[in-house]
Amino acid sequence: MGYTFKGGYHPPDGKSLSESCTIEEMALPKVVAIHLSQHIGAPSKAIVSIGDEVKVGQPLSEPTGFVSIPVHSSVSGKVKAIAKIPDSNGVKSDAIIIESDGNDTFFDGVNIKKDYSSMTIEEMRKKISESGIAGMGGARFPTHVKLSPPKEKKISHVILNGVECEPYLTADDRLMQESPETIIEGLLLMMKITGAENGIIGIEKNKPKAISIIKKASEKYGNIAVCECEVKYPQGGEKQLIYAALRREVPSGGLPMDVGVVVSNVGTAHAVYEAIALNKPMYERIVTVTGEAINNPKNIKARIGTPISQLVEFAGGLKEDIFKVVNGGPMMGAAMSDLESPVHKGTSGILCISKASGKIMEEQPCISCGKCVSVCPMKLVPSTMATFVQYEKYDEVHKMGILDCISCGTCAYVCPSKRNLVQYFMRGKGEVMKKLRK
Ligand code: SF4
Ligand code: SF4
Predict the structure, then answer these.
(1) CA–CA separation, 79 vs 113, rounded Å?
(2) Where are the alpha helices (DSSP H) in 297-370?
(3) Is the peptide bond before 150 cis (omega within 30 degrees of 0)?
(4) Which of 419, 420, 421 to mutate to test the pocket of ligand 2 (most atoms within 8 A of CB)?
(5) 308-326 core/surface letters (b: 16 or more CB in 10 A; e: else)
(6) Beta-sheet strands, E only, within 248-319
(7) pLDDT digits over 156-191, tens only?
(8) Distance 108 CA to ligand 1 centre (A)
(9) 3-class SS at 133?
(10) Burial class (CB in 10 A: 0-12, 13-18, 19+), 52
């Protein structure tokens, strides 16, 4: 048994399709579309105009507040348009569209190794913010904000999340195997910035190669440990990982810093290292393109703004029995309506589900089996919460703790009646928040 939390479930993980695929770099896209908002917080504001020549790593926008970060060009070329285009959820927002000149010319000083030993903590935070780094595990929260806890919140541990419990996704697994040193360097930088004396890297036990490689890369540091976690979804949830690693419980409505912890994805640590050591902003990321309905599953290093259709093509294209394409994994991802939407900073995977493996089942009435209650990692009562939302009893559902729901989908996965539990909770949370804002 590994370290774990209470509740959860282990669905078939489908990782064998891509876990042995080394990271491959795609040819440069001819056109990229870079949305101004790819993070949680205020959208950034464009600082380039149509017709401007830009280079790789050049800022295209500026933040509009503390919880805001810029975006950068992922190709060299010319700004062709600034227009509203749909993201992977079909929601339209402003994006800068750049036609590549094919030269891949870097902006001044970008991607050049430098000595950062004399940088102050404030300079490091500023560099992380200027580099447009947002959480790469999917949460998309600006990293410089996470690394700026208030003075009264003493941080004892930075925990890197290498759990990757979402079925099918293997991008983090590959990154840990292929770039362990940069992840460790990023962790050390995060520890320095937050004042944490200890670092932990949480990895599920189904990634034995990553565990062994990360252990070897970190063994010379006495204050960094690898936490081998039980293979169970959602082990990679922040609160679940903190409990597994340290037995500390984040209180209802609280944050990891309330128990002295900052949690960050392994990909984010890698990006922090690149920002500080190489002056490299976030203009590319690793995306797993996988599923039973793609010809050659791959882990792809893709430029931000590349149309997802090109990643699908690079992975050999869709098979005939395609059922749907999901942005993310099967538990927390969302079905895509348009494959031309671009890769974002939070795009960790593209899952191509076949007709044979993806069935839509009609929702049936609750049979009070209690399975959803036994698996909920937040100790909620999903069956009753869903019924309250159905009857619009939002005060009751608020009291039951609906705001603690992390939308992990474990309850819906195990429900024999196939109730649309997550959709009920999204609606319920929205209504409760509306009431609270009044
Ligand atoms: S989606 Fe919410 S209610 Fe359902 S298991 Fe996850 S945390 Fe619990
Ligand atoms: S798992 Fe589904 S059927 Fe069973 S109690 Fe929960 S909501 Fe009802």
Answers:
(1) 28
(2) 308-314
(3) no
(4) 419
(5) bbbbbebbeebeeebbbbb
(6) 261-265, 284-290, 298-303
(7) 999 999 999 999 999 999 999 999 999 999 999 999
(8) 47
(9) coil
(10) middle
